[in-house]
Specification:
Distance between the termini: 169 Å
Largest sheet: 4 strands, mixed
Number of strands: 4
Structural class: alpha+beta
Number of helices: 5
Order of helices and strands: HHHEHEEEH
């Protein structure tokens, strides 16, 4: 078969024309579609990556917030526990102070009651002792005991300290009345013996004023100016009371 050159050329030209047509009509659109598809896919991939990045960021932020919340919770719990402990200690301290104050108040009250009871017992003891002594002395009191006590009073006048004599004498010269309290009536001789003792001691004549007092039980109290000579059983009871109280208090 003889190859026709023109046919060959024509076929070549047809082939290229066909290629050009395919390129124009099929390849370029397909390529364009594929490119658009690729761009769309790339965009979606980028969006997915961006979304994943944002999600990761959000997750990290969430975890960070959770961590901060946990730390804040721990801090708050520790602070609350500290405040609770401090409040417990404060309440305990206040309660202890209040209990100590109440205990001290109770002890003080108990001590006061104890002292009052002891003082009342002492007073009761003194009262019964004085009552007993008073009854005893009253039962043994008579005229003879009275005279002995009067003798003791006269001896007391003669025993006055010399340092007091001048002052008492000066007082007697201004007011020469001497009061004599007596449990029993005094005889004239007894009154005269009192006057004589005062005259001998102070050099002053005095007037005797008699006051009878049964409370003296026996004996006399002689008031010479500002000086008193107590030779009565009542006076001795007072001395006994003083000694008894001193003894009880010591």
């Amino acid at each position: 078969m003889k190859l026709d050159l023109l046919t060959y050329l024509f076929e070549i030209i047809n082939f290229f024309v066909l290629l050009w047509i395919l390129k124009k009509l099929l390849y370029n659109p397909v390529i364009s579609v594929l490119k658009k598809r690729k761009n769309y896919i790339d965009q979606k991939i980028r969006e997915a990556e961006e979304a994943e990045s944002k999600l990761k960021k959000i997750k990290d932020e969430y975890n960070h917030v959770l961590k901060e919340i946990e730390e804040l919770k721990k801090t708050k719990i520790a602070q609350i526990e500290k405040e609770v402990q401090q409040e417990k200690e404060r309440l305990y301290s206040e309660m202890k102070k209040e209990l100590d104050a109440q205990r001290q108040k109770f002890l003080e009250s108990l001590e006061i009651e104890k002292k009052e009871a002891i003082n009342e017992l002492k007073e009761e003891t003194v009262r019964y002792a004085l009552k007993f002594v008073s009854k005893l002395l009253t039962s043994i009191s008579d005229k003879n005991l009275h005279k002995k006590l009067l003798s003791i009073a006269l001896e007391g006048i003669r025993s006055i300290n010399r340092e007091e004599i001048d002052d008492i004498a000066a007082e007697l010269k201004e007011r020469n009345t001497v009061t004599v309290e007596t449990a029993y009536p005094l005889s004239e001789d007894e009154i005269e013996s009192i006057k004589k003792s005062i005259k001998d001691m102070f050099g002053v004549n005095v007037t005797i004023k008699i006051e009878e007092k049964n409370d003296l039980i026996a004996g006399v109290k002689i008031h010479i100016a500002s000086k008193m000579i107590d030779a009565s059983l009542e006076g001795q009871i007072s001395v006994f009371e003083t000694l008894l109280r001193d003894k009880i208090e010591s």
